[in-house]
Specification:
mainly beta; cytoskeletal motor activity
């Protein structure tokens, strides 16, 4: 096992976004629906440690939900991860 194999990456998927007044959010209860700014056919955004890395489609496999990657994003050449106590 190499040292790279020991690194964990937090993966998250953004289905869509919504903006609403805080008073509306506070009134929501169980069963409330938040409408997102996307349609069923739109790609979802895949983030690695909060950085967009790919786009994909939602896939249902039995009772499980997955993501099929449709596009891998290229990062900007001047991108540098921000690390605590980083020295330049």
């Amino acid at each position: 096992m190499t040292s790279v194999d020991k690194i964990s990456v937090h993966i998250s998927v953004v289905l869509g976004r919504a903006v609403m007044p805080i008073h509306q959010l506070l009134r929501m209860g169980r069963g409330a629906v938040i409408e997102l700014d996307v349609s069923e056919e739109d790609d979802v955004e895949i983030l690695a440690n909060d950085i967009p890395v790919a786009r994909g489609q939602v896939v249902l496999r039995g009772d499980r939900i997955g993501i099929s990657i449709t596009e891998v994003l290229t990062r900007a050449p001047d991108f540098r991860p921000q690390a605590e106590n980083a020295r330049i």
